[in-house]
Amino acid sequence: MLEAELLFSEAALYLRPEDVSQLKNAYTFGHGAHSGQYRKSGEPYISHPLAVARILGELHMDAPTLTAALLHDVVEDTDISKEEISERFGEPVAELVDGVSKLDKIQFQTQAEAQAENFRKMFLAMARDVRVILIKLADRLHNMQTLDVMRTEKQRSVARETLEIYAPIAHRLGLNKIYQELQELGFRYSHPLRYRVLVKATRAARGNRREVVGKIQSAIINKLKDAGLEAHVHGREKHIYSIYKKMVEKQLSFSEVLDIYGFRVIVKDIPSCYVALGALHGLYRPIPGKFKDYIAIPKANGYQSLHSTLLGPFGIPIEIQIRTSEMHRISENGVASHWLYKSSDTNLNDLHMKTHQWLQSLLEILSDSADSMEFMEHLKIDLFPGDVYVFTPQGKILTLPRRSTAVDFAYAIHSDIGNCCVAAKINGENAPLRSELKNGDRVEIITAPYAKPNPSWLSYVVTGRARSQIRHFLKTIQFDESVELGERMLNQALLALNVEPELISEAQWEKLVRDSGFKSKKVLLADLALGKQLPVVIAKRLISPLESVKSEQLPSDPITILGTEGLTVQFAKCCHPIPGDVIVGLIKKDHGLVIHAHHCPVIAHAQKNPENYLDVTWGKHITRTFEVKIKIVAANKHGVLARIAAAIAKTETNIDDIAMESEKDYTAMGFILQVKSRYHLAQVMRSLRRIKEVAKIIRT
């Protein structure tokens, strides 16, 4: 096959003869494994792995990567096992093939869940070896290049996934050529009509632009020669997708986007970059606020260049990128430059360090995410390139996504700092934790040893790392609280059955956990607190071997409610119980223990299931406040609401909500107040009765 010969001859230019020999063996093996299989286009299936290997060959990837590319579908689509590949081609190749393979053997409830789990597995392998994702990106690129044989619905779903996941990954790894081609093809198949219209308009416009581009390019070359610089100057054509994105994001017309001319200047070293910038600023006037120095502060994917927008002849905006040839190589090939140029280049080392840190953060998100769909949510947030550059108090630069907050910054430094942060200083001034960060901000995080994450942070954090760490902490805290409450509930049920909890042996617990299919005793206790299991049922199953040692009725102490139980204990909204009320605990499935006032109608309706009840009582030293509803009927006179609100405030009571309904002479007001106890509520009501316009007060 011609494609195979081209691959071997291209690989021979930079690989050893024994490596090329291994490639030939892999091709023969793959050709035999895929024998009789064809693509939708009618071509033999082996044409696809060959094309993937050639894409990676253009990046001068190493022999194991090219070998794995030739075999990447063998495990998934044939009877060949990972072990057989390991025996023939070595463990590294087998691991790469396994990392790229999908999870077809596992059944999932939905296609989205299956795809999310595939990504989860792929990123796990990628965190161990970044070559996994390079093979996957080449695989996706060839699939996109041959997507026209698929039905329209399939084309759109694959294109959307490419734009949402694969193109941003390529960008994050600095693979600019692959990134741009994935974007172009993704746009072509997700919005075919828009793509065709823009292609036609661009072709028509480019003919008229050639003369202008030539004149500006000549002026730039002459100016750089006058400054004593050797430089290569290229006009940059805008890609169709970047034109479309700029039209949508900046609300520009097609002609306005195309009126911007782009040029790339490549010089020999970093000092020459800044000399070239000065020379071009002397040729055309720079537009204020349109200069970015990505050499001093590289992008997260290792990209480095000077960017400036100038006002050219006839007021034409000109976008200039100035970089060295090394920066250009990294811009085109990103992390793949490691295999192409084995040097001690500092920029490459920095890029690999940043890539390693990003992959490690993905591993953290993987371990903290409850399921694959949650991981995908975090990943999509994390993939879009960061363009906010902020400083730590020590002067270290951190790159964060747009709209990142002080909390995102805290978690970017370390999860322990994020978990314990209580305040922030931005540029030396106190600022709320939800403050959005801007380029150049100097951020200092203030922590407290006993602080913990607030669930409300999830409404404004941006980074996947912060979101997953907060969720992980909250779930852990809820689990620990649930285990403690579940143990108290079970002990009460055991006492009611005349058994001391201490008499239950570890052997009995182990048997119950094993027979019930729970992972551990703690998981079972947590399920009790969350209402997924009934305490009386679990207690009876535990004591069956102890029935012969039952004694007289043991006193069963009620569970003490302190109001600090967190998410495991809820207070019913129907009756708003407060300390001082007689209360009852009702076990509600998936809600846990819900506290009701004894007189609540819900309790009367639920009396047919007494096993769902728990005996509960208020603790002695409760410091938190509780919601309570009151209704006030007052004369409809000027200023009466203000006097009522002032009377409530004097008793150190917060008003959460007010609802009013007016008639001719009277107004009915519904208040939700925050009080500490029945005694506190009585003080509020006494204070209100002193207002002469108040005719009636009742607790509802």
UniProtKB/TrEMBL annotation:
GO terms for cellular component: plasma membrane. Residues 386-447 form the TGS domain. Pfam families: ACT_4, HD_4, RelA_SpoT, TGS. InterPro entries: ACT-like_dom_sf, ACT_dom, Beta-grasp_dom_sf, HD/PDEase_dom, HD_domain, NT_sf, RelA/Spo_fam, RelA_SpoT. Residues 45-144 form the HD domain. Keywords: Kinase, Transferase. One of its GO terms (biological process) is response to starvation. GO terms for molecular function: GTP diphosphokinase activity; guanosine-3',5'-bis(diphosphate) 3'-diphosphatase activity; kinase activity. Residues 629-700 form the ACT domain. SMART domains: HDc, RelA_SpoT. NCBIfam families: spoT_relA. In eubacteria ppGpp (guanosine 3'-diphosphate 5'-diphosphate) is a mediator of the stringent response that coordinates a variety of cellular activities in response to changes in nutritional abundance. Belongs to the relA/spoT family. This is GTP pyrophosphokinase. It comes from Nitrosomonas marina. The lineage of its organism: Bacteria, Pseudomonadati, Pseudomonadota, Betaproteobacteria, Nitrosomonadales.
